[in-house]
Amino acid sequence: MRAVVQRVSEAQVEVDGELVGRVEPGAPGLLVLLGAGKGDGDADADFLADKICGLRIFEDDGGKMNLSLEDVGGSLLVVSQFTLYGDCRKGRRPSFVDALEPVAAARLVERFVARARTHLRSVETGRFQAHMVVSLVNDGPVTLILESR
To answer: For the whole model, what pTM was predicted?
Structure first.
């Protein structure tokens, strides 16, 4: 699995004009764009959820990135994004042959979310396979790319 993790001071995702998930303005949070690839399984979802919830990317009293989302009681917004597996090496149109098929990918995204909820009180999501409009205010900016393999 692949994840683009952004530390945010606020974020939201809308589907057809309806707000479906958010990190409240002013609250510490992470926006995670999450994709599943061929060969990914439960262990990949669990690994990334544990890793992301425990990433020490929030500042402590000394201004050092030393605290995790768990430590600061922050919120997580998870948005599925198969395009993280787009291969742009050939031609001008991305190839998505490495993305996991939708039914299996949805199950892994759900597993990731369930695992994250064992760490955090506030975990919200977008809507799988929907056209989503994502808005965010990147805090830092802090943006990291993680892979389960």
So the answer is: 0.95
